[in-house]
Design brief:
single chain, alpha/beta, Rossmann fold
């Protein structure tokens, strides 16, 4: 009996050893084979679906207002295009898929797995993916660092991935300060918060992105931070037909008005835009007796902000960054003259000789404003030229034509 018990113990030990070895070797191999087989099947399925229809684009990630307009513009190429964000800012919520409520429900494990489920769903539905440099569908593990797994996954499936700079996702302190004495770091109160800031961090992020990107786009001063990017797309289109044309209906400054000249400024970040220089200049002009008033628009939804812009005689964008924002293009669409600092007009603008921006670095804020306040006829003429410039170069059809060329060029280069 003792010998039988001993034999059973040895057999049990042998079986346990076999099971442990299986767990250590066979089971991981089986898992890897299963994952590889599943990924190959998914790749075959997605590529088959992509070939069956027209390209479908998804614009996802940081909820920048122009993302939704870019998506609408792509429809001029005959492509289906949607937008997806995890959260929205107070400025706008004009996105097709808003997942903030869905993401905030359920246990922690659900919030962790949900982005991967959304990525899987999107890979079955879309051919092209459009992101900013800082985030896509998956939550980045580190701020301003695009998840490498997401790029690798999409490229494995044969998807096209396009990246666009919007500013904070690429601007760093060292490169910014090298551009000149006055820049968006000059009065910045939020170091390593408002922008990526750190040179090494930016280089690491861009290096990863460059390995997977179908195309990388930049414009204006952002091209200084994105070597190797394509800089001729100018991807901030304006939908001039929005709300049957009412949203951006032009209201040019009245050359015969006797009311004070109204300057409107929307400083989402006062330190970046040089707001205090403008305030000081207006106060000095008022002390001289010139008829000028200043209206600041802060933390206001886009629709409400546009109503205030309509009342302006002059729009002041910024005097530090060296490039205009989307706000400046919206203002020109409404027929308003725009004061803004453009550091390198020849390389930063479409057809700079046609652009009616009043180029205004810090040292010219007061003198430029004084000249404009004294010349209402010029205000009217600048407003008319600005609207024409937007119609010619930033309407949805104009932008769609540039995007179509970029797609064709990148396809040939692939």
């Amino acid at each position: 009996m003792a010998s039988l018990a001993g034999a059973l113990r040895r057999a049990k030990g042998l079986a346990g050893g076999i099971i442990r070895k299986a767990r250590a070797t066979i089971w991981p191999r089986a898992q890897r084979l299963f994952v590889r087989g599943g990924m190959r099947l998914l790749r075959l399925l997605t590529r088959t679906l992509d070939r069956l229809g027209q390209p479908r684009s998804l614009y996802a990630g940081t909820p920048i207002i122009n993302m939704a307009v870019q998506a609408r513009a792509e429809e001029h190429l005959g492509h289906r295009s949607d937008t997806l964000v995890w959260k929205t800012y107070f400025i706008t919520s004009a996105f097709k898929y808003r997942l903030d409520k869905l993401n905030n429900r359920g246990p922690m494990w659900w919030q962790k797995i949900l982005p991967y489920l959304v990525l899987f769903w999107a890979s079955l539905r879309y051919t092209r993916f459009h992101f900013f440099y800082d985030r896509g569908i998956l939550h980045p593990a580190e701020q301003f660092q695009f998840p490498e797994f997401e790029m690798r996954f999409l490229r494995y499936l044969g998807k096209e991935i396009y990246f666009y700079a919007y500013g904070s996702d690429v601007r760093t302190e060292k490169t910014t300060r090298a551009l000149g004495d006055h820049n968006c770091c000059t009065g910045c109160p939020t170091k390593v918060d408002g922008c990526i800031c750190e040179e090494e961090k930016r280089e690491r992020n861009l290096s990863r992105i460059a390995r997977y990107a179908t195309g990388m786009f930049s414009m204006g001063d952002m091209l200084e931070y994105t070597p190797g990017s394509r800089n001729d797309l100018f991807y901030w289109p304006i939908d001039l037909k929005s709300e049957k044309g009412r949203r951006y209906a032009p209201r040019y400054p009245d050359p015969n008005s006797t009311a004070p000249v109204r300057v409107v400024h929307a400083p989402n970040h006062r330190g970046f835009k040089g707001t205090h220089y403008l305030i000081a200049a207006v106060e000095r002009l008022q002390a001289e007796g010139l008829p000028v008033e200043l209206k600041l628009v802060e933390r206001v939804p886009n629709r409400q902000a546009l109503e205030i812009y309509r009342t302006a005689d002059i729009i002041f964008d910024q005097c530090l960054i060296g490039f205009h924002g989307y706000f400046a293009l919206e203002a020109m669409a409404m027929g308003k003259p725009v004061m803004v600092f453009i550091r390198d007009p020849k390389n930063y603008l479409i057809r700079p000789e046609e652009c009616p921006f009043v180029n205004t670095p810090v040292h010219l804020v007061e003198s430029n404003l004084r000249e404009l306040v004294r010349d209402r006829q010029r205000l009217h003429e600048l407003g008319v030229r600005g609207r024409q410039y937007i119609e010619r170069y930033f309407s949805l059809p104009a932008y769609a034509a540039r995007l179509g060329r970029a797609y064709r060029d990148l396809e040939k280069a692939a």
